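Appendix B. One record, verbatim.
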Amino acid sequence: MKRDRARPQPPDERTALYERLRWQRQTVRKKTEGLAEDLAHRAFLPSPLMTAAGLVSHLRWVEHAWFEVDLLGLPDRGPWTDEDPDAEMRVDGVPLARLLDEYDEQCARSVEIADGMALDGLEAAPPPGREPCSLRWVLLHLIEETARHNGHLDLIRELADGVTGE
């Protein structure tokens, strides 16, 4: 395995976490770049929910849930309901470009929120049934979740049109 030695080392933990999450977020856009609209909404895996468009929407709402709801204690605006807990992944008819723009906007909001918090701080009481978590934990979780879904996007993209990449 070749190591990327050109990447500079971050000066501190916050910068390291931000940089790794930023890279994963940018990878979402890179994995979907140039994907035909019909292919973005087609399920290539056994689950009908696993579409490129659905994953982008899911990642947008995951950002909202962790940063706005769990860290700030704001109301949950997510589309999910008890009857349809996966509603954020049902985006037929919503253009991929719009979903990507909404994801970018939500990520920018997440950065604004994170900038005003200490890594260890517990800023707000969590929603009922949720444990309190620190900004550090949320950043690590979002790195993990976004990376996992980038793997899904890799598979979907290759099955959709044969495009592969880093």
